[in-house]
Amino acid sequence: MSDALILDAHAVLWSGDRDAVAGRPLLLLLHGYGADERDLLGLSAYFPEEFTVASLAAPLAPPWPMPGRSWYPIDGLDGRNPAHVTAAAQAVIDWVDAHAADAASVGLLGFSQGGAVSLQALRLQPERFAFVVNLSGYATPGDLPGDAALAEVKPPVFWGRGTADDVIPEFVIEHSTTWLPEHVDLSGRVYPGLTHSVSEAEIADVRVFLEKQLERA
Questions:
Q1: pLDDT reported for residue 77
Q2: Using CA of residue 85, residue 87, residue 91, residue 93, what is the dihedral sign?
Q3: 41 and 54 in contact (C-beta within 8 Å)?
Q4: Where in the sequence is the signal peptide annotated (predicted)?
Q5: CATH number of the domain within which 69 lies
Q6: Contact 97, 152 (CB under 8 A)
Q7: For residue 1, is pLDDT > 50?
Q8: Three-state SS for 133?
Q9: 1, 59, 99, 109: which is deepest, by most CB within 10 A?
C-alpha cells in the first residue's frame, strides 16, 4: 500500500454541530469491517454530552459482496498486514490534524478493525490522543517507533471483548493481553457469552470510562 489513505471528510457524521469542535473534547468513532460511518453513531446517545462525537468512514471498500467499508484488508496473502493498519491509523491522524486541530482533546473509540486502528494511531502519536476505547479489537503485532514513548506516557485504554467472540484470531488476543498492560493504563472487561458485538453492559462500562476521562481533563 504505497499511496497514502485519505478519509472522506464529507462522509463524517456528527452527533451535533460540527462547528462546535473548538475547545471541546472530541470523540471519534471508528466502525468495524463491512460497516460504515452510520454503524456506531447511535451509541453517542449513551455517552457524556460534553463530548462532540464524530463518526468516521473507513477509506477502503472490502471485496465484493461484503458491504460497507474497511480500514485495511483482511483477505488474501497480505491480509492483516501491520503496515495496512498503520496506514489507516495515519489517515485518522491526518484527518484530525486537518479538521479537529482545535479540539480540547481527542479520544478514539473503535470496534473490531476500528479498535485496532485506534490503538495504532495512539502508538504513532502517544501525545496526540487522550484515550482509546477498543471494543472487540486488538493491538497489532509488531514494533513501532512510538512504542517506547507510549510506555512512558501510558494513556488510558479501555478494552472490552466477549468470551464467545470467534472473529478475532486467538493469537492477537493473546498478544494484546500481554502487550497492552506494558504500554497503556489498561482497564476493561471480558463479557461472558458476548459474541463479536457490543452489549448494554459494555456500553455502561464505556460511559463510566468516558466520564473518568472528563474528570482527568
A1: 56
A2: positive
A3: no
A4: none
A5: 3.40.50.1820
A6: no
A7: no
A8: strand
A9: 109
**80 domain-assigned:** yes
> Among 16-20, 54-58, 69-73, 174-178, whose mean pLDDT is lowest?
16-20
Determine, yes or no, domain membership for 4.
no
**Cβ atoms within 10 Å of 142's Cβ, excluding its own:** 14
Sequence-separated (6 or more) residues with CB below 8 Å from residue 46: 203, 204, 206, 207
The structure's pTM equals: 0.95
User: In Å, how far are 81, 144, 181, 189, 209 from 87, measured between CA atoms?
Assistant: 10, 12, 24, 29, 28
Q: Residue 134 belongs to what domain range?
A: 9-216
Mean pLDDT of 3-17: 92
Q: Kindly report the average pLDDT of the chain as a whole number.
A: 94
pLDDT digits (tens, 9 = 90+) for 188-199: 999 999 999 999
In a domain, 3, yes or no: no
In a domain, 87, yes or no: yes
CA contacts within 13 A on the Cβ side of 196: 15
Amino acid identity, position 216: R
Alpha-carbon torsion (29, 96, 138, 37), positive or negative: positive
Residue 51 has pLDDT above 50, yes or no: yes
